[in-house]
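User: I'm writing a tutorial on reading structure tokens. Could you give me a worked example: one chain, its sequence, then its tokens, then a sentence or two explaining what the tokens reveal?
Assistant: Sure. Here is the example chain.
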Amino acid sequence: MTTAPTTTRMRPSRKRTMLLLAAPSVVLLLLICTYPLVYAAIQAVHNGSLINTGQYVGLQNFTLTLPTPEFRNAALFTVVFLLAGVFGSWAIGLGLALLLRMPVPGAKVFRVLLLLPWVMPIVVSATAWNWLVATRDSPLPTIARALGFGDVLFLADPTLAVITVCVVKVWLSFPFMMLMSSSALASVEDSVYEAARLDGAGPWQRFRFVTLPMTAKSTYISWVLMAIFCVNDFPTIYLLTGGGPVDATSSLIVLAYRKVFQDFQTGPGVAIAFTMTFVLAIVSALLFSRIRKADVA
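And here are its predicted structure tokens:
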């Protein structure tokens, strides 16, 4: 005789105890998150500075700041920086993760070395890249001049500066994507690839119809995280170019910093930051909807 499974319910006294134990942490977390958000919202609708709140101006900080060419250029560079950072680092990270799954001699050593760009302090990385490209006598401009390309000033030319900053971001971020991809690939059984191989699937077909679908959820999560990292990445840009030349590499976070801490226009700076947060929330929501629609867990 079999008995039907019974579901154990938490006793009311135990439930109350757990809620009471969790309450201090929840309240503290809400205070930490809510106070800066409320204070920033107040600053966004006033024309004050770092010292005083100023007069109430409503949405004027948004309506006057967002349509400016300065904001549009910063938004455009932010999109370019985000796309390059997310998809460039993902492509390289996934490729390296697939390569390290093969029986490569010294794979463990390479895996540790490939993590160095991510774990290295950003000040050290920015200093190293400045040494490589910043001046006419730096190694890369010297090599370019020896190859007949003339004086290639990577951080003085607007187009080259954008490309250089994006390359540095990819270099800093691909280890994170490699780790995410490696963990996702580790969850795929070898028998799945063997079955696909027996069905006649080639390497590209196995990658397209097995690897990508079965790692889709991890991929979307890594895209969300990397999108947040890229939009909020202030030190990489500021330490390399300071937003120059001629604001070519000025992202929204750099522009917000300039407005608040250099021009002492707190309202417009916070308005830019709120706009960034709103757009980033939309992008994250879209990617999370893709996570829910992924067929394979």
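What the tokens reveal: The first helix runs from residue 12 to 44. DSSP finds 14 helices and no strands in the chain.
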